[in-house]
Amino acid sequence: MAKPIVIVGAGQAAASFVSRHIRLGSAVDVYLIGEEPVPPYQRPPLSKKYLTCELEREQLFIRPPKWYAEQGIATSFGTRVESIDREADGRVSGAEIEDGEKLATDHGDLIAQVLEGADLQYDALPWFWSDQYDCKLQIAGLNTGYTNTAVRPGATDNSQSTWYYTDDRLIAVNAMNDTPAYAFGRRIIVANRHPPPSEIANPDTDLKALAD
Predict the structure, then answer these.
(1) Measured by CB atoms within 10 angstroms of the end CB, which terminus of the chain is less buried, N or C?
(2) Considering the domain 127-211 in this protein, what is its CATH number?
C-alpha cells in the first residue's frame, strides 16, 4: 500500500499540486497542512483588490473551502508543522505538528506526475510577476551574469521591456506594462532562439514571428 502524501504549507503551489494529483486519478491519500486558518488563496490580489474592497473574501480562494473534502483531500488548516522526521534513507516518515501529533507521509521531491511514476525533470524557465497597482511587472528567465541589454519600447507611454543577454545569448526578459513582450520573450527563450539585441530594440520587429 502506497504511503500517503503530506503537503506542508497551504499556498498556491500546494493547491496546484493537489489539483494535478486529482486530475491524474491517483489513489494515494493526500494530507494538506497549513499554518493559516484558511485554505490556499491568491496572494497578489490580497493587498491590491481585497483590502480595497474590490474582491469578496471567497473570491480569493483558489478552490472553495468545501472542495478539498469533496475531493477526498484531508486538510488541517491553522496547524503549524514544527519538525519533520526523516528516516535513514532520506525519505520523510512523519511531520510533527505543534500539539505533538505525528502524521505519516511519503514526501515527494518533484511534482505530482513524478509521484505517479513519470520520469520527469523540473527544468521550467523561471518566471515572476507582480501587480504594483498601475505598474505590472513580468519577468521570464534570470538575468544573472548578463553582459548587455536591449530596451524595447512598449505600445503605450508607460510600457517597455528590457532583454538581457550573455554575449549573444538571450537569457531573460523584464517587462513593465508590456505583457506581449513578456509572453513572446518567454517563448523565444524556451525555444532557445537568440535574436540580436538590435532586432529586439527595433519597435517594428514582430515578436510573434520570432516566437513562432
Answers:
(1) N
(2) 3.30.390.30
The DSSP result for 72-110, as a single string, is T-EEEET--EEEEEE-TTS-EEEEEETTS-EEE----SS
| Within this chain, domains 5-115 and 127-211 share the same CATH topology | no
pLDDT band at 87 (very low <50, low <70, confident <90, very high): low
- Report DSSP letters for the chain, one per residue: -PPPEEEE--SHHHHHHHHHHHHTT--S-EEEEESSSS--B-SHHIIIIITTTSS-HHHHBSS-HHHHHHTT-EEEET--EEEEEE-TTS-EEEEEETTS-EEE----SS-HHHHTT------PPPEEEEEETTEEEEEEE--TT--EEEEEE-SSTT-EEEEEEETTEEEEEEEES-HHHHHHHHHHHHTT----HHHHH-TTS-HHHHH-
- Cell digits of residue 114: 513524478
> Considering the chain, what percentage of its residues have pLDDT values greater than 70?
80
Closest CA to 127 of 160, 172, 161: 172
Domain ranges within the chain, ordered by starting residue = 5-115, 127-211
